[in-house]
């Protein structure tokens, strides 16, 4: 099946300005959240450049003279070199939802705008400390993988992918979230940080795939919401279209029972998502299209 052509959604506002000062403070917060996967926290195989001493031994021909330890040399009268445990670079894997429902928004921004901002913040933080960032998009045909890149090339790759937009209405991809998580599990062979950015409206079971990732990686789930998804106003008869399937229905919102049932279904869905993430011990951050998403991200991670 030919994947749908991505489009820039109508009404796009963009994520807004990202202050440098707040980005600096988030750098330390994200580093702490991913402490189990940061460079130097686990021993890598072999010897190399790092901060943890692995061995102090007599100098041999061919050793790097810059590794000579002056104190040990003076104490023993024989040149000694310091060999260190190499630090493992942290790779951050971002799983980004491009399904049609991400083009929805009734307040300051679309959900895709907030997702774009969160992706860029995580990506910029990821390439610091000599790290790398990879992107897996899903919800728009076969999951697309941008392999890990460091420094500016990694950020530029994210920007280009985000510029392509999201899938058009009616192109629902069953099990897209689950399949993307499984693919990350196959390609992310070394422990790292996995950040899933989505509205988490995929009804297919993704818990097993996410649980498998959480056993090996630090995982952060970022859920994007819009206030209108939680309740429907009393505005009479409405014709509504499901962006995922393209199905059209008519509802009479003047009926209190309809509004209450709508709110109940959505409340149960959100509770189910939150409950599963807690069960898997996955950090859960909720961002809304209504408000300062960047400040909310900083507060929830601090």
Automatic annotation (TrEMBL):
Residues in DUF58 domain copies: 56-271
Protein name per UniProt: Uncharacterized protein (DUF58 family)
Domain of life: Bacteria
UniProt-listed PANTHER family: BLL2464 PROTEIN
SUPFAM superfamilies referenced in this protein's UniProt entry, alphabetically: vWA-like
Pfam families: DUF58
């Amino acid at each position: 099946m030919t994947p749908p052509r991505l489009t820039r959604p109508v009404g796009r506002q963009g994520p807004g300005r990202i202050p440098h000062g707040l980005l600096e403070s988030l750098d330390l917060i994200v580093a702490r959240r991913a402490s189990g996967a940061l460079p130097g926290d686990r021993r890598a195989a072999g010897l190399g450049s790092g901060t943890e001493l692995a061995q102090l031994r007599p100098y041999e021909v061919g050793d790097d003279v810059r590794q000579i330890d002056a104190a040990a040399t003076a104490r023993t009268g024989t040149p000694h070199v310091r060999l260190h445990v190499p630090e493992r670079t942290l790779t951050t894997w971002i799983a980004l939802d491009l399904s049609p429902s991400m083009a929805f928004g009734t307040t300051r921004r679309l959900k895709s705008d907030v997702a774009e901002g969160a992706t860029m913040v995580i990506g910029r933080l990821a390439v610091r400390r000599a790290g790398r960032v990879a992107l897996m998009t899903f919800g728009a045909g076969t999951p697309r993988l941008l392999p890990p890149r460091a420094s500016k090339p990694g950020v530029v790759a994210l920007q280009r992918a985000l510029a392509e937009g999201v899938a058009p209405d009616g192109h629902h991809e069953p099990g897209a979230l689950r399949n993307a998580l499984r693919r990350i599990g196959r390609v992310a062979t070394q422990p790292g940080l996995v950040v899933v950015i989505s509205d988490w409206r995929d009804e297919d079971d993704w818990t097993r795939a996410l649980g498998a990732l959480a056993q090996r990686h630090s995982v952060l789930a970022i859920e994007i919401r819009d206030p209108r998804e939680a309740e429907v106003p009393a505005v009479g008869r409405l014709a509504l279209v499901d962006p995922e399937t393209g199905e059209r229905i008519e509802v009479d919102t003047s009926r209190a029972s309809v509004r209450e049932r709508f709110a109940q279904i959505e409340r149960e869905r959100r509770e189910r998502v939150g409950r599963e993430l807690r069960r898997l011990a996955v950090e859960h951050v909720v961002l809304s299209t209504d408000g300062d998403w960047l400040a909310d991200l900083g507060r929830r991670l601090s």
